[in-house]
Amino acid sequence: MTSDTGTGTGTGTAVETERGLVYGPSGKRLDLHRPEGPVRPLPTLLLWHGIGPDERDVLEPLARTAAARGLLVLVPDWRSDAPDGGRSQLLQSLAFVRKEAGGLGGDGESFVLAGWSAGAGAALGVAQRPESAEGWHPTAVVAVAGRYDLPARTTGTAPLADLAAGLTPTVPVHLVHGSRDTVVPAQHSRDLADALRAADNPVTYQEPDTDHAGVIMTVYDPAVDRCVPTTAADAVRAGRLVAGVLAEAARGSTRGSGHSL
Questions:
Q1: How large a percentage of the chain has pLDDT more than 70?
Q2: pTM surpassing 0.85?
Q3: Residues spanned by the domain of 45
């Protein structure tokens, strides 16, 4: 395990990071990001990456920016190419946070579940089907650049199909999607926002001017076939917006059914 201290992107707040905490019987690892200081417990966030083998580092710019806003942010590895599509690893990371977050400076029972890309659908799936997590409910879901007509990695059923069957999340859902996303077009989040509104479920939706990688403060690098940090203005703006949504959701202060395009 390694640790370091720095500041969140665009903030002067010192953020401490611990990398490589082991969770679950699979031996997978997660990183912890939190602001320096004695204030505890912190509002807590579990943040899942998208398709790929063990890409918790991809979310570090966003995670540190969110942590600088006063959150305990935990970002686990998981493998989308696992035989079960990553389901057991995702749920093991959730069980770990419920059990251990209190000792790490956060809240182990009341926290936000969030994800990017495939992680977005996975997070929403848990809220719709709490039996997948022993009946546990997140306080809110933040879903970033997701697709919701495909089976969620946590439940095996598509969130939109579950909504049509009457399985509403019952907690606030906050959606963010880059308007220039060509990997997962923003229409997927627009459709979900409309379906949630039709079900009278609290929902907000924002669509910053960036792409699939930019919405998490990264750019796709074909040389390494993964997203890497960037200082591009559109990505920094979008990432700060997402960090703000995460922080507000974790504090329970994001409300309503806003739609920003």
A1: 92
A2: yes
A3: 2-260
